[in-house]
Amino acid sequence: SVLKSVLLFCNENYLNNIYLEDAAEALHVSKYYISHLLNNKLSISFNDYINSLRITDAVYLLEKKEGGITEIAQKCGFNTARTFNRAFKSVYGISPSTYKREHGEKKE
Questions:
Q1: Prediction pTM value
Q2: In this structure, what DSSP letter does residue 104 have?
Q3: Which of 34, 44, 53, 90 is buried most deeply by CB count within 10 Å?
Q4: Which ranges of 1-108 would DSSP assign to H, the alpha helix?
């Protein structure tokens, strides 16, 4: 199905700087169709889905205390720490640095 192809494309490319237009071109479907499909089937926008994949990676790195916030943001595909902070806070309600402080592994 097209939805499965869209999700696969996102999962394979979310670390890169990708846009809805990129998925549409790669899958030979309209960007409006992809947007409609994600909204109707998953109740999420393309950008929000990409950010959710990136944030999942970021949470792992934050918990492992794998580098600073800017470094983690870049490793997870965010262009800027500011964009990362905004996306993270919209999901978790706290900043990545607060999350890292509260949930990070204790390094002895």
A1: 0.90
A2: S
A3: 34
A4: 2-13, 20-27, 31-42, 46-63, 69-75, 81-92, 96-103
